[in-house]
Write a structure and sequence with these properties.
heterodimer, A: 120 residues, mainly alpha, Methane Monooxygenase Hydroxylase, Chain G, domain 1, B: mainly alpha, Four Helix Bundle (Hemerythrin (Met), subunit A), 76% helix
Chain lengths: 120, 167
Amino acid sequence: MSFYDTWSAVFIALIAGVILVGTALIGARLLGPFAREQGKSISYECGMLPTGKNWTQVHVRYYLFAIMFLIFDVETIFIFPWAVRFLDLPSHAFWYMVFFVLILSGALFYAWRKKVLEWR
Amino acid sequence: MITEILWWFFAIAIVGTAAGVVFSRSVVHAAIFLILSLAGVGGLYIFLTVEFVALVQFLIYGGAVTVLILLALMMTRLDATGAPDKLTGPQAPFGALVGITLLLTLVGVSLATAWPGDVDDLPTNITIEQIGDVMFTSYGAPFIIASALLLVAFIGAIVFAKQEDEV
């Protein structure tokens, strides 16, 4: 039963998390006062009435932030098994990882030089 | 016993949330259902005791790929009138064809494959330590090439996006 020895803590934490969030939401729903008025759903209650649609088409440059997140997420995944076995691996494994991170730093450097990282 | 109950729980959750992806009328709701579905698959990987694959599933698929899909939707969709989306479009027959072909292929492959016999109904445990050992002793070159692949993907995305910017 070593599987449940290892994972029961995660499972209990999952159930406790669901219960905590669920009771908070249900408690707010039961105890909090609710005034259902049409005017409460507009963006600025005392400001100008918003016009147009609430879904704007975002620019393609924001997609690059998502791509960057994906790529460095993958890098994290590769670093993980390396970090777990770091002390027992031969020394060239260290240089593999240095080279790996250097190549991906090249991606970051390229993005920096191309002014992708500037938020406009 | 408890494993079977949990397995069925995860299986029903995966199928239910996957149906939610297909049938929900708002793409943002569909994306949230997609996160839940992918996380459920990650839970099944934990039951197969392949923690590394579960980690990949949670971090990359549940996190990054869903963010990519959401941003792609926000980038491309123009007809955001707030009205519920239609569930089918002109692509429906092709989608059905691709879906049924994929289903038949996957079922056929999984039935035709001779799966390795696991001892005492326990799946073969592949730890992250074993993956680390193999990756950095036998597969060093593919590992470095993978980084080059990521670099090329990123530079390609930048080139496309910046072209759009300069016009």
